[in-house]
Design brief:
The two termini are 77 Å apart. The protein contains four helices and no strands. It is elongated. It has a domain of 47 residues. It is an all-alpha fold and 119 residues long.
Length: 119
């Protein structure tokens, strides 16, 4: 079988013309048979229309989406009026930091007394 890249433009146009003839003949055969649809439909009849949405439909979908987001964010009708819990301060107090620093200094003094350069 010959590759399409090896064909000339004249040959490709002839192939297209023959395929179109085949499709029209197939359509005529289908219409004679009663149009039962058993054969392959022609590409022109299988083309689907682009679906369009009305402005009212789009507005309804947008309103529903806004309502979902409002409910998710807590702005909906069921929003509770509880104040937000205050964030806990996770920092150590100055006294705790002083104790930790003293313990570290003691640990390092012990290591250096043993003549080591690392823990």
């Amino acid at each position: 079988m010959t590759k399409l890249t090896d064909l000339t433009t004249v040959q490709i146009q002839r192939i297209i013309a023959i395929k179109e003839q085949i499709e029209t003949l197939q359509g005529q055969l289908d219409s004679i048979e009663g149009g039962s649809g058993a054969g392959m439909p022609s590409p022109s009849t299988t083309k689907k229309k682009k679906r369009r949405m009305s402005r009212a439909g789009r507005a309804a979908i947008a309103a529903a989406a806004r309502a979902r987001w409002a409910k998710y964010r807590g702005n909906g009708a069921k929003a509770s009026k509880k104040p937000a819990a205050k964030k806990k301060d996770r920092r150590s107090s100055p006294a705790t930091r002083a104790k930790l620093a003293a313990a570290a200094r003691a640990r390092w003094a012990k290591v250096k007394a043993a003549g080591k350069t690392s823990l």
